[in-house]
Design brief:
By secondary structure, this protein is mainly α. It has one domain (about 5-300). It has 14 helices and no strands. It has helices at about 5-30, 30-55, 55-60, 65-85, 90-100, 100-110, 120-140, 145-170, 175-200, 205-235, 235-240, 245-260, 265-280, 285-300. The chain is globular and about 45 Å long.
């Protein structure tokens, strides 16, 4: 991977890792639904000009029903679930749970789309979910509804991310990515804004909270999507999705630096176990080993 694309991958990882930081800060003031309604509305305003300039507006109109469903499954509902989870869990903790999405995608693709699961992928699933158990048990003094429900909400969000991948593959194959991203943000905002007005907090959020949600929508969503699709175009989907391994790293880092969150040994063990499981489930680890084999075989002795 060229240095420029590697830099873009790191920036994208840092932005998506920071989204958990801003949700952790904003959810108590706006409420989960209000926070995500504003986030998706701002992201729509960022992405819309790029979609129009790229000529993908017609794609969005033509496939609006499927994009609407994907928007609910991939954005509106899981974003709200993660915002709820951050009310009780740290930014770093929730970013680790977020890494489970590729495992759910593999399970759903196997059961619904009939895709094959190799022995290593099945082992990766078991390994990854054992990492989640490690995370939960690591909060042994709080293994009640205070932790269990937010963890279930986070896992529910990652399940929906996995479902959205399969829905997109099933119904939106061939539709350009920016149309899907912009349309999903738009439909999410349309659905969430009425609920946000209904559940709007009694006390007005602070000015700091407003600029944080603006950064969440502009940088961590709008700009991040543009970077993601640029990486897909330049380095391929397999390299681009490796961002999933870096997001928890930045989630833990930002949480420790800006929120003084403690990074425990249990969290690190759980994170490594989950990411190793994801790498086996998605086939990324096997693919890298296959690419290295010819190099090793041809190396002069």
């Amino acid at each position: 991977m060229r240095p420029l694309y590697l830099l873009e991958l790191l920036i994208l990882s840092a932005l998506w890792g920071a989204s958990f930081l801003f949700m952790r800060e904003g959810a108590p003031q706006f409420g989960p639904i209000g926070l995500i309604a504003i986030r998706t509305a701002v992201a729509t305003l960022v992405l819309l000009p790029f979609m129009m300039m790229s000529g993908q507006f017609r794609d969005c109109l033509r496939h609006w029903k499927a994009i609407f469903i994907v928007g609910l499954v991939n954005t509106a509902i899981p974003f709200c679930l993660f915002a709820y989870a951050t009310l009780f869990l740290g930014a770093g903790y929730t970013s680790i749970i977020n890494a489970c999405a590729p495992m759910f995608a593999a399970i759903i693709a196997f059961t619904w789309l009939g895709e094959r699961l190799s022995a290593s992928a099945i082992f990766g699933l078991l390994l990854g979910f054992s990492g989640v158990i490690v995370l939960v048990l690591g909060r042994g003094y709080q293994t009640d509804s205070i932790v269990i429900l937010p963890v279930v909400a986070g896992l529910g969000a990652t399940f929906l991310y996995g479902l959205a991948v399969c829905l997109t593959k099933r119904y939106l194959t061939g539709v350009r990515s920016l149309a899907i991203a912009t349309g999903s943000q738009f439909f999410s905002a349309i659905c969430l804004l009425p609920l946000a007005f209904y559940y709007w907090p009694a006390s007005m959020p602070t000015a700091t909270a407003w600029w944080q949600v603006a950064v969440l929508g502009i940088a961590c969503t709008g700009i991040a999507y543009i970077l993601y699709f640029r990486l897909i175009a330049n380095v391929g989907i397999r390299n681009a999705v490796s961002v999933a391994y870096l997001v928890p790293v930045f989630g833990l880092l930002w949480g420790a630096v800006f929120l003084a969150e403690q990074i425990t040994l249990t969290m690190l063990v759980g994170a490594v176990t989950i990411m190793l499981g994801v790498s086996l489930t998605s086939g990324l680890l096997q693919a890298r080993i296959r690419r290295l084999k010819p190099t090793v075989a041809n190396r002069p002795v």
